[in-house]
């Protein structure tokens, strides 16, 4: 079974509007971390935001926020006020357990296109 | 100097060639990783090193050989590759501490095997 599911292969959003990218995960480990990365066409994977399984509040980083619904096992990324430079692939990832590196899995990604 | 650098950025090689990919991190991290990203496939973790010790090898073929001489440098030695090995190879690093383990990535090496 897939550990990370991103059901939207592609998304379009109008510039300056908000967009939500979906991510659901599967784990039985009580301790885990959830990450979102952005990958522009240049290839570099850029870290955006992190949510720990024990964090009480949703993570926010500038225009990025993570809508963490633990019971539903979802960790959707919300980008507010979209910009043309936000066009890229977006990957949701999860680290299970307390160990670095190991069990760090990525979802298939969502390609976001911001329209002028 | 940016956090994680990779060289070369692009590489074309024949199946009989031997080449090496280099990764260097300037973040003071202790863990480093190699990932493979093929078209239309999720990232695949290949190798993990922590404090220069290899801790993960996800059934990677022996034609890929990693080397980690110190916590700042990571190499991926390539020999007798196959066309299906063509992909983007990404290096990442993290603190290596379980509470600080966001992985930071380099720009990748785009490899084409002819």
Your description of this structure?
The complex is a heterodimer of chains A (116) and B (114). Chain A has strands at 4-5, 10-14, 19-21, 24-25, 32-39, 46-52, 60-61, 64-69, 74-79, 88-96, 104-106, 110-115. Chain A has 116 residues and is mainly beta. In chain A, strands 2, 5, 6, 10, 11 and 12 form a 6-stranded mixed beta sheet that branches. In chain B, 34% of the residues are buried. The model of chain B has no long low-confidence stretch (mean pLDDT 90). In chain B, a hairpin with a 2-residue loop joins strand 7 and strand 8 (73-79). Chain B is globular. In chain B, the strands form 2 sheets. In chain B, strands 2, 4, 5, 6, 9, 10 and 11 form a 7-stranded mixed beta sheet that branches. Chain B has a 4-stranded antiparallel beta sheet with strand order 1-3-8-7, with no helix packed on it. Chain B starts with a strand and ends with a strand. Chain B is mostly beta strands and 114 residues long. Helix content of chain B is 0%, strand content 56%. Chain A binds chain B through residues 4, 33, 35, 37, 42-47, 50, 91, 95, 98-102, 104-109, and chain B through 31, 33, 41-43, 45, 48, 50, 55-56, 88, 90, 92, 94-98, 101-108, 110.
């Amino acid at each position: 079974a897939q550990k990370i599911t991103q059901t939207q292969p592609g998304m379009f959003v109008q510039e300056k509007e908000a967009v939500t990218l979906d991510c659901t995960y599967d784990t039985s480990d009580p301790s885990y971390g959830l990450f979102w990365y952005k990958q522009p066409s240049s290839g570099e994977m850029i870290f955006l935001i992190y949510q720990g399984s024990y964090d009480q509040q949703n993570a926010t980083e500038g225009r990025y926020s993570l809508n963490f619904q633990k019971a539903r096992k979802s960790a959707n990324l919300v980008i507010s006020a979209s910009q043309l430079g936000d066009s890229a692939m977006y990957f949701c990832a999860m680290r299970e357990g307390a160990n670095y590196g190991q069990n760090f899995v990525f979802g298939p990604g969502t390609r976001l296109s911001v329209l002028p | 100097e940016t956090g994680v650098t990779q060289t070369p950025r692009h590489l074309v090689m024949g199946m009989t060639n031997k080449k090496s990919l280099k990764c260097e991190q300037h973040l003071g991290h202790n863990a480093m990783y190699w990932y493979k990203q093929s078209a239309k496939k999720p990232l695949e973790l290949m190798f993990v090193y922590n404090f220069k010790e290899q801790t993960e090898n996800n059934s990677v073929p022996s034609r890929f050989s990693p080397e980690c001489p110190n916590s700042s440098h990571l190499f991926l030695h390539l020999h007798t590759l196959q066309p299906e090995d063509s992909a983007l190879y990404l290096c990442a690093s993290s603190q290596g501490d379980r509470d600080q383990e966001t992985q930071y990535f380099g720009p990748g090496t785009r490899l084409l095997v002819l």
